[in-house]
């Protein structure tokens, strides 16, 4: 990625101007995260207002990219400080215009929206709390409301919010101005890491020329990627709920812990309802256990005729605040399920689970990484058509709206944090580690109650052969386990088994390999030998179950070659078949999953190995199947048929779309 240089002074100064704020913030962010981050849901005590749509937007092309701060653009409407364009939210800003400078822009961009706050939210003088919440914004965000800074957040892919009650209550009836400054600069200490490189050779590059280098293989889309909402709670409110579940055949226990903010004097009552609305258990107080006789367990898709069963935990809080009674109600969906790992198996509800699924990206034409309901539902339909029971959120946490559907449909998730491309030695230092710990805290805080999430992945393909990786992953994985003892932890490795310093600390070995592609390109015949050796070496060394967490080949749809040649649809299919024959032997032993790289073609930086992006999708970026999709579909349904104890749900007809309706009910 290249851009016009930000400032006309020495390189070092330019680097500082651009990166300073992000780097300083990375240092500050080392504190543990505080409070809950419940998904905003309406209830009798909570209202919600979506702020999606058109926002005003300006990229700061000034020398140094810092005009917005120097001129304090947040103090008045953005249109008064210069030209603005319309920008959709949620969406990445990169592909919205025809301007290549904006597509490849690095630095600060500014968003603004003026919103009318409902009068009733402001009437009763601070007994209503008004919260401004961002589902995610990439990468570093500073938010002002009516010119007052309300929150600063480092990192894309995870939510952040601010209580803005006092600010909006100061000026009822007038438009409330929300201004966001967003910086997509990556440093060696951000997640993912990156670096700015200034090209000072004036015979080869124009003055002040720089590029942002990254070591990951997807386009560094930026913008307000997920929904922005305003929601209310009473001033005494349910801040967080943590639920864990255990079960035996005839009874399940739902253990809960609730935190309330705003008063010490409150009471809590809980009722757990089934899908018919019948109360199956009740409780009270901030922690305890609910006993559920004859529970309906949460089962993965294709493992049960009724996958994704969720109860609804209604938490009711009553309190007095300054003599005024307050009530808050929050309803949390709860799936009852257990997860265990043995040396050869991954057990969900005590039964062996085989991951037959995909790796995805949040990526599409025009909107980039912006949330898009039509795309989300289409993807779930394709996943179920494929017979996929799982995916990994490669290489960052996905939208909460996606995670909700995983819970609902029973799609099992390996939940990955944005620890991708950690290759530079300096990215293994304390500063990076501290930030990584915080990101895991934020991720677990957000997704801890999701039954679909069965394992955390703390990184993808780090340089785990470097000696500092040992301490780094030991600390990171121990921290993750301390935060959530109920789930196994992994990271995804492409390092040789003999020199991987992180692998001793994981519960499941996740390994990526591209035999016949990046290694021995064009030589499909090497796959059986090399893949067998890969599995045997890892198992011999660690005696832990193994997931083939990536394998794949690029294919250009419509490009044909027989005998199969690289980039043709035939080659992608042939590669799959070679891999599958080894999986079929090893899944009888300790291989517990296979996740194709990738579900769909996706955008990357430009480069000699990328043809308008990465083409390893089994679907195109527009979600049309390549030939490989049919190979995988046949295989996944076959595996599901073999292992399922419930024949009717997997009795699909190969090409019928109406069968999908049956499958999902
Ligand atoms: C990998 C990476 C993934 C890439 C993929 C590829 O190992 O984990 O992010 O996109 O290979 O296609 O090169």
Automatic annotation (TrEMBL):
Domain Glycoside hydrolase family 2 catalytic: 339-640
Xref: PANTHER family: BETA-GLUCURONIDASE
Pfam family, one: Glyco_hydro_2_N
Subunit structure and binding partners: Homotetramer.
Keywords per UniProt: Glycoprotein, Glycosidase, Hydrolase, Lysosome, Signal
Gene: GUSB
Organism placement in taxonomy: Eukaryota, Metazoa, Chordata, Craniata, Vertebrata
InterPro entries: Beta-gal/glucu_dom_sf, Galactose-bd-like_sf, GH, Glyco_hydro_2, Glyco_hydro_2_AS, Glyco_hydro_2_cat, Glyco_hydro_2_CS, Glyco_hydro_2_N
Main location: other
Function: Plays an important role in the degradation of dermatan and keratan sulfates.
EC number: 3.2.1.31
GO biological process, one term: carbohydrate metabolic process
Protein name: Beta-glucuronidase
GO molecular-function term, one example from the UniProt record: beta-glucuronidase activity
Signal sequence extent: 1-31
Membrane-crossing residue ranges in chain numbering: none
Assigned protein family: Belongs to the glycosyl hydrolase 2 family.
Domain Glycosyl hydrolases family 2 sugar binding: 49-234
Superkingdom classification of source: Eukaryota
GO cellular component annotations of the record: lysosome
Cellular localisation: Lysosome
């Amino acid at each position: 990625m290249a851009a016009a240089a930000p400032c006309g002074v020495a390189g070092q100064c330019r680097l500082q101007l651009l990166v300073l704020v992000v780097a300083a913030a990375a240092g500050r962010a080392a504190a543990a995260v505080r409070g809950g981050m419940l998904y905003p849901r309406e209830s009798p005590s909570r209202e919600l207002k979506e702020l999606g749509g058109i926002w005003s937007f300006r990229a700061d092309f000034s020398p140094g990219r810092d005009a917005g701060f120097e001129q304090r653009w947040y103090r008045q409407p953005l249109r008064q400080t210069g030209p603005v364009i319309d920008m959709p939210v949620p969406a990445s800003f990169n592909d919205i215009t025809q301007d290549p400078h904006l597509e490849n822009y690095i630095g600060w961009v500014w968003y603004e929206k003026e919103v009318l706050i409902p009068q009733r939210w402001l009437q009763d003088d601070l007994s209503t709390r008004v919260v401004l919440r961002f589902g995610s914004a990439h990468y570093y965000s500073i938010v002002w409301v009516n010119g007052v800074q309300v929150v600063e957040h480092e990192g894309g892919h995870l939510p952040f919010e601010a209580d803005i009650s006092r600010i909006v209550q100061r000026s009822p009836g007038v438009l409330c101005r929300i201004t966001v400054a967003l910086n997509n600069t990556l440093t060696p200490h951000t997640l993912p890491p990156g670096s700015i490189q200034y090209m000072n050779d004036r015979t080869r590059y124009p003055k002040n020329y720089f590029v942002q280098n990254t070591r990951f293989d997807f386009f560094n889309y930026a913008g307000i990627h997920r929904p922005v909402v305003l929601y209310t709670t009473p001033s005494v409110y349910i801040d967080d709920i943590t639920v864990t579940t255990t079960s035996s055949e005839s009874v399940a226990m739902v253990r809960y812990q609730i935190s309330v903010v705003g008063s010490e004097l409150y009471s809590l009552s809980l009722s757990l309802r089934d899908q018919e609305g019948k109360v199956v258990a009740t409780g009270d107080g901030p922690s305890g256990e609910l006993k559920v006789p004859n529970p309906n367990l949460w089962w993965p898709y294709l493992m049960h005729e009724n996958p994704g069963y969720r109860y609804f935990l209604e938490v009711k809080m009553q309190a007095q605040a300054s003599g005024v009674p307050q009530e808050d109600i929050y309803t949390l969906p709860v799936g009852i399920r257990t997860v265990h790992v043995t040396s050869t198996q991954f057990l969900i509800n005590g039964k062996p689970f085989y991951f037959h699924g995909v790796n995805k990206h949040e990526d599409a034409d025009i909107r980039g990484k912006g949330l898009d309901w039509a795309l989300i539902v289409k993807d779930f339909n394709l996943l179920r058509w494929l017979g996929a029971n799982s995916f990994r959120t490669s290489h960052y946490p996905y939208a909460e709206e996606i995670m909700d559907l995983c819970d609902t449909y029973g799609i099992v998730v390996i939940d990955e944090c944005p620890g991708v491309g950690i290759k530079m030695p300096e990215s293994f230092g304390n500063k990076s580690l501290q930030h990584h710990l915080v990101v895991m805290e934020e991720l677990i805080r957000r997704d801890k109650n999701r039954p679909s999430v069965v394992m955390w992945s703390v990184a993808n393909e780090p340089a785990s052969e470097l000696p500092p990786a040992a301490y780094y992953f030991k600390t990171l994985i121990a921290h993750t386990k301390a935060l959530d003892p109920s789930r196994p932890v992994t990271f995804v490795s492409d390092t040789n088994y003999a020199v991987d310093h992180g692998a001793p600390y994981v519960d499941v070995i996740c390994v990526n390999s591209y035999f016949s592609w990046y290694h021995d390109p064009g030589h499909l015949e090497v796959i059986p030998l090399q893949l067998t050796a890969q599995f045997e070496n890892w198992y011999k060394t660690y005696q832990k179950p193994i997931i083939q967490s990536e394998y794949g080949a690029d294919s250009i749809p419509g490009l044909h070659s027989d005998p199969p040649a690289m980039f043709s649809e035939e080659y992608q299919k042939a590669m799959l078949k070679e891999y599958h024959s080894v999986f079929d032997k090893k899944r009888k032993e300790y291989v517990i999953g296979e996740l194709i790289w990738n579900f769909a073609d996706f955008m990357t930086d430009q480069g000699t190995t990328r043809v308008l992006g990465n083409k390893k999708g089994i679907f195109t970026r527009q979600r049309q199947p390549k030939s490989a999709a049919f190979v995988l579909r046949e295989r996944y349904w076959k595996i599901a048929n073999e292992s399922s104890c419930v024949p009717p749900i997997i009795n699909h007809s190969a090409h019928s779309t109406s069968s999908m309706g049956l499958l999902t009910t």
